[in-house]
Specification:
The protein is mainly alpha-helical and 146 residues long. The structure holds heme C.
């Protein structure tokens, strides 16, 4: 094959590949930001929190506390956001049972993921509390470091 034609073919392959790559990237980005905060939050919950707090938010008695009707879940948003950002390690009594386990920090999640998962938790399992916004989380991330 003529070297010019080979070069031309190669160049068009590179162009085609770049175009396809940009398209898949765009689609992937769209997927993670699409849907409601509740729907996205459910995905984060399933991937990150479910193993300990269970699908129904019921937790595991004396090990992992429930997320149903607790003062932490329904109460102050800033304190709740801090639990996810910095983890939680206190001897606490929640809904009549004591817990002294450790929850690790989840500050690898971005502001929107934390807002979505907390909105999901605050409005699922029978909970009825207001949504958490990504800006609420970013505020805690910057002021919350002690
Ligand atoms: C490895 C297990 C584990 C994972 C994963 C985990 N938690 Fe926890 N979580 C715990 C434990 C254990 C405690 C109680 C810590 C203590 O006893 O001080 C807790 C406490 C909490 C509390 C405060 C107490 C309550 O029940 O209201 C909230 C809210 C909470 N977790 C939410 C979450 C959310 C949201 C996620 C996912 C982003 C998550 N947790 C992921 C184990 C976990």
């Amino acid at each position: 094959m003529n070297i010019k034609i080979t070069g031309l073919l190669l160049a068009s392959f590179i162009l085609l590949f770049n175009a396809l790559d940009a398209k898949t990237k765009k689609r992937a980005a769209h997927k993670t930001t699409a849907g409601t905060s509740m729907a996205r939050g459910q995905i984060v919950y399933t991937n990150v929190c479910l193993a300990c707090h269970m699908a129904d938010g019921g937790g595991v008695p004396n090990m992992n506390p429930p997320l149903i009707n607790t003062t932490y879940v329904l109460g102050n948003k800033a304190a709740l956001i801090k639990i996810v950002l910095h983890g939680f390690k206190e001897d606490v009594e929640i809904n009549g049972k004591t817990y002294s386990n450790t929850m690790a920090p989840h500050d690898n999640l971005n502001d929107r993921q934390i807002a979505d998962v907390l909105t999901y938790v605050r409005r699922s399992f029978g909970n009825k509390a207001s949504a958490v916004k990504a800006t609420d989380v970013s505020k805690e991330r910057t002021v919350g470091i002690k």
